[in-house]
Write a structure and sequence with these properties.
With 74 residues, the protein is mainly α. It is built from 3 helices and no strands. Helix content is 91%, strand content 0%.
Length: 74
Amino acid sequence: MSRKDALRAVRLERGSLDVSREIIHAARWESFAETCWQDVRFGVRMLRKNPGFTAVVVLTLALGIGANTAIFSC
């Protein structure tokens, strides 16, 4: 099959090239978003499992954010 005939066959089967690009782009974004959501849920579960570690992490972040705000707010 020639290149021209192959492109025509794909367009007839799947629609236009723009539609195919949109489908591929949407699938990639949904996969990324789903993976990020799973990671966030896993992180929250692990933090709930270890409350002492969670307290240290929250305290460290609070001190770091407060120090940066105090230093760079001038």
